[in-house]
Design a protein that fits this description.
Layout lengths: L5 H15 L5 H11 L28 H12 L1 H9 L13 H11 L4 H15 L7 H5 L3 H6 L4 H15 L5 H6 L2 H8 L7 H10 L12 H11 L7 H7 L7 H14 L7 H11 L4
Helix pairs in contact: 3-4, 5-9, 5-16, 11-12, 12-16, 13-15
Length: 287
């Protein structure tokens, strides 16, 4: 029999060594160690790339997240960068968030009302139900539409409150499920509630859940801001808004915030009144 060559012997030894080392854990440990030292959101080693935006899972109230958002938006949108430099950074309530049911019920009560009028009705509602800690689905359903009308809540809004409460009682919605849903599912589920449309959902997502990538395409102030900032000939529709503001991803909530500030600076009447009312309802619900 012909003896194997020296080269063949060496190759066989290398193959045996590789096969016996497959269970040795030092390689994955070394890889994890290297990854852990990789800078996160560092523009020196990770330059802004609008075609490959970062994946954001943190709320805007997370420490340092606003700074990262502004840094990213400055790099992807020079026109927006001029607004960022002219206005103070966005602020969002970082205190303990209120339960989603309370925030949504309050949003319904504040809809299409001036802030002072909404506060007055909301306070009467709290007196009737027994305080904010008592704003629970069963308690809301126990109050008749007639009782709600007596404190200034319209018949239509009374039906909205009852529909929201009913969806909680029947298990269609819950505070836990709302906090766990992705943005698409959350939008679909909340707009199934009577009286809760896209605008209210977007405001809830921005000011209550502090989600970073929400574009309220139906908000007049944001649409006017986009038209003014980019010199468009007419107010952009939903598709145009998505197209123009795509460069803001994954911080479209922050970009929208600056559109409201832009229109306020231009003196546009009524630009932020509804926004302020809903922000007050969902962001200060626990105060």
């Amino acid at each position: 029999m012909k003896r194997p060559s020296k080269i063949t012997t060496i190759v066989n030894e290398i193959s045996q060594n590789l096969s016996t080392s497959s269970n040795i854990p030092f390689r994955p440990q070394k890889i994890r160690k290297l990854i852990s030292k990789t800078p996160v959101n560092n523009t020196d080693s990770n330059p802004v790339n609008p075609h490959n935006p970062p994946k954001i899972v943190k709320p805007l109230t997370f420490q340092g997240e606003i700074d990262l958002a502004l840094q990213y938006l400055r790099g992807t949108d020079p026109l927006l960068a001029t607004l960022i430099d002219k206005h103070h950074p966005p602020t969002f309530d970082s205190s303990t968030p209120s339960p989603p049911f309370l925030s949504l019920a309050k949003s319904i009560l504040y809809q299409q009302l001036a802030v002072n009028a909404a506060k007055s009705i909301y306070n009467r509602f709290l007196s009737l139900i027994g305080g904010e800690e008592s704003v629970l689905p069963d308690a809301v359903l126990s109050i008749s539409p007639q009782q709600l009308r007596q404190i200034g809540i319209s018949q239509r809004k009374a039906s909205y409150l009852h529909d929201l409460a009913d969806k909680y009682v029947t298990g269609v919605l819950s505070d836990d499920s709302i906090l766990e849903m992705n943005d698409e599912m959350l939008f679909e589920m909340l707009t199934s509630v009577k009286g809760i449309g896209p605008w209210t959902v977007h405001m809830f997502m921005i000011f209550s859940l502090h989600k970073p990538d929400v574009l309220p395409v139906s908000d007049l102030g944001v649409r006017k801001g986009v038209k003014a900032l980019y010199g468009l000939n007419q107010l952009p529709g939903d598709l145009k808004m998505e197209e123009v503001c795509d460069k803001w991803r994954p911080y479209r909530s922050v970009g929208s915030w600056y559109m409201w500030r832009l229109m306020e600076a231009k003196g546009a009447k009524g630009t932020s009144s509804n926004v302020d009312a809903v922000a007050a309802s969902v962001e200060a619900a626990a105060s």
